[in-house]
Hints:
Two copies of one chain form a homodimer.
Chain A: E1 2-6, H1 13-22, E2 26-31, H2 34-41, H3 53-64, E3 68-72, H4 78-86, E4 106-109, H5 116-119, H6 123-147, E5 152-158, E6 173-178, E7 181-186, H7 194-213, E8 216-222, E9 225-226, H8 252-262, E10 266-269, E11 275-280, H9 281-293, E12 301-306, E13 309-312, H10 313-326, E14 333-336, H11 354-358, H12 367-379
Parallel strand pairs in A: 1-2, 1-4, 2-3, 4-5, 5-8, 8-12, 9-11, 10-14
Antiparallel strand pairs in A: 6-7, 11-13
Helix pairs in contact in A: 1-9, 4-6, 6-7, 8-10, 8-12, 10-12
Amino acid sequence: MNILILGSDGYLGWPTAMDFSAKGHDVTVVDNYFRRRACTDMDVEPLFAVPNLIERARRWQEKTGKVIKVVIGDLAEPEFARSLFSGSCKYGYPLTGGTWDGVPDAVVHYAEQPSAPYSMLDYKTSTLTIQNNLMVTTNLVFAVRDLAPDTHIIKLGTMGEYGTPNIDIEEGWLDIEHKGRKGRFLFPRAAGSIYHTTKVMDTDLMWFGARMWGLRVTDLMQGPVYGLETPETLMDEGFKPFFNYDEMFGTVVNRFVVQAVAGYPLTVYGKGGQTRGYLNLKDTLACVELAAANPAGVGELKIYNQITETFSVNQLADMVAKVGRGMGFPVEVKSIENPRKEAEEHYYNPVYTGLKELGLKPNYLTDEVMAGMFETVIRHKDNIHSHKIFRGVKW
Amino acid sequence: MNILILGSDGYLGWPTAMDFSAKGHDVTVVDNYFRRRACTDMDVEPLFAVPNLIERARRWQEKTGKVIKVVIGDLAEPEFARSLFSGSCKYGYPLTGGTWDGVPDAVVHYAEQPSAPYSMLDYKTSTLTIQNNLMVTTNLVFAVRDLAPDTHIIKLGTMGEYGTPNIDIEEGWLDIEHKGRKGRFLFPRAAGSIYHTTKVMDTDLMWFGARMWGLRVTDLMQGPVYGLETPETLMDEGFKPFFNYDEMFGTVVNRFVVQAVAGYPLTVYGKGGQTRGYLNLKDTLACVELAAANPAGVGELKIYNQITETFSVNQLADMVAKVGRGMGFPVEVKSIENPRKEAEEHYYNPVYTGLKELGLKPNYLTDEVMAGMFETVIRHKDNIHSHKIFRGVKW
């Protein structure tokens, strides 16, 4: 397949690109390095430096003989976004021979400001998040409608769109019976941050595109991802993705492992009963692949809940503490005043069978997986700056 | 009360401003004249010229002795939007003495690109609609949160957010029982145009603001408005609001009356069974006043379905034809191929009791009301350009 990956500089984008390339697909990646700049601006750079996309593509070709094409630009600009579907884009790699392969079979859309705390910092970062995320999705929807209507859009949503409702969370849709009549609707959304709310708006727009113009869309409602290892990230130190351990851009499991290694008490917010669905980085790649291999039909919005198991924050902290202590770290768990406005104890029962039915074989968060994460972090422990771990962005 | 009206150059904004001013409230109006420019750009100017806002405010003061303050600027610019709540805005009228009265008690938000067909014309107008409407609402939400948290936001939504579901449309919220558990959720939305979808996104954002930051918000889910007359519009020819009769910016009843007068067959799209809720311009003002007099509480999102009766397009065409023929016009009704993608026959049963419970006394669409609209249109019939009536913007 010919795959276009938007937002490929990030934690998930680059491993996804290598995965598809390793399996023989034609891959083009796009980014504007927003995430890099934001990490520098906020003084929360990741645990280890990550080469730029062109440098990574060069090393990838050296190691594997395969070409990942790179285009650098801002997808919030309509004409830039359209250039990817018309062949008028300018390739950053390869410098010669970066020619367009025609409209992609699938486009994987990761190109959003991905941090909930960043989106809640102040009105400027909130507005930037809304503006950036909505405009990238808007430009993608119209570019595909106008220039590549058969292209399958694989959009990364988030389980956070649903919030923590008092009823079971179905996979995207809900059959409702009301006053003796029946209808099928998008499962009600009530997100917990501005970032998550932009994903709700994305879903509004993509569903409109599917039912009005026959777009083919898969919306993957993903939970927080953890881990660093895929077969490809092990090939070269430069192939590891961004690994943030700060409150802003780090996901919770990754952060807890770094805190354990750094001797920083694990930051449990409030009562720690906040329950979410999680998945291993390897499973993100498997899910995106399964989505690409099972495209939505014309006018169909497929929605999957992309998680493999659920944990409360307390359970995660206990798991990290147990593995860390087994490795000799005197891990402390500390409840701090919750900077977020969220339920600290709540009902949570999401359905997540769709991707398993397509063939997903989950990599669960075992002690061994956790120990592997510890080992990577330990190798880079001199880079940990404890003062960057927590700043208390208030909701 | 101290009332700020955003988007006051438009069909509803200016009559609302006069209504509040006539009743003794302190009124400040804001616009960037987008609607004027768009009408000129698209060659669909209204039935008669409308003086600019400053000129209208000047005449209003001459006739009534009351001051409506005017600020001209683009609410999609964050700093401009914030200046209205910090007192640093620049007044266009009065030229001297335009001083800030402090944070408003209520802000009425009409400041959006209001046309569904315009939003569906091409990717540029679609993108402009999403960008403009979301950014104005975003800037308003953050300005109120940061600078005027007690201000009551009265937001004009649309019944079109709900679409035409197979179940009764409740007023904004729906109690759902699912697998033996219960929850209360926003009524599911599924809008029929990009414009209407931006209103869904607005609701997503304002509900987030209410539950997360305690904002006080009333969302008025309005149907298409018809009419020209309010006590104030009759005081001066220059006080009439924009009256568009084209497919782009005209609402359906207004358009049909002009078509009848112009001898242009009434343009019924497809089967004409499309049913919607409608209301008189006078009732829009009454509803906004009722919303202002009954503010949402801290953290409350109040939602009302702002319509007074429902009609199918065929019913409206028959009513216009009957009144028109009675006045001597040989009105023809003609079904044309539907340029929109919409159900032409569907279930439609919205609840709209909330505003009546607050005291709304509806002005129904009687033959007399229709005849009054005919009389106004007849006075301006030399301004009707038949070729501007229909251009067939495809969905």
